[in-house]
Amino acid sequence: IITLSDLECDYINARSCCSKLNKWVVSEVIGHAVVTVLMLLSLHWFIFLLNLPVATWNIYRYIMVPSGNMGVFDPTEIHNRGQLKSHMKEAMIKLGFHLLCFFMYLYSMILALIND
Fold first, then answer.
1. Hey, is 108 helix, strand or coil?
2. Do 31 and 22 touch, CB atoms closer than 8 A?
3. What is the DSSP letter of 71?
4. What is the pLDDT, as a whole number, of residue 73?
5. Handedness of CA 109, 114, 115, 116 (dihedral sign)
6. Residue 13, C-beta contacts closer than 8 angstroms, at least 6 positions apart
7. CA–CA distance from 30 to each of 21, 25, 83, 113 (Å)?
8. Whether the predicted pLDDT of 63 surpasses 90
9. How many alpha carbons fall within 13 Å on the CB side of residue 36?
10. Which tens digit of pLDDT belongs to each residue from 22-31?
11. Ramachandran angles phi, psi of 12, nearest 5°
12. pLDDT for the residue numbered 33
């Protein structure tokens, strides 16, 4: 969010912004897929169903990058067609989702410690 807002305010150029953001895309896809599979294997159905759409969206977004683009975030297209605003909205939604997941995981951990 901070990097995208810096780009929006012209504090950094599009190429450095996109290279910073693209560095984290693959690790985000792998990490979220691993967490989703672990929730399936540990039979936490609600958390699995909560994570499944986000993991699917991350994989879809990574796979559908057009050939010739630098990555999910492309410096030549980030200002076109309102992509900057959509990337900012997506980052805010993901922030809210990860905040919700953090408190759910914390509650689950405390509940498991109390029950033992």
1. helix
2. no
3. S
4. 86
5. positive
6. 7, 75
7. 15, 9, 24, 28
8. yes
9. 17
10. 899 999 999 9
11. -130, 160
12. 95
Question: Using 50, 70 and 90 to split pLDDT, how confident is the model at 83?
Answer: confident
Q: What is the dihedral of CA 86, 87, 90, 95, to 10 degrees?
A: -140
Q: 110 is written with which tokens?
A: 């405390």
DSSP per residue, 6-43: HHHTTSS-HHHHHHHHHTTHHHHHHHHHHHHHHHHHTT
Tell me the C-alpha distance between 63 and 57, whole Å: 10
CA 74 – CA 112 distance, rounded (Å): 43
Name the domain count of the chain.
1
Q: Which tokens belong to 34?
A: 């691993």
Distance CA 25, CA 89 (A): 16
Per the structure block, which two tokens stand in for 79? Answer: 């200002």
- How far apart (Å, rounded) are the C-alpha atoms in residues 83 and 73? 9
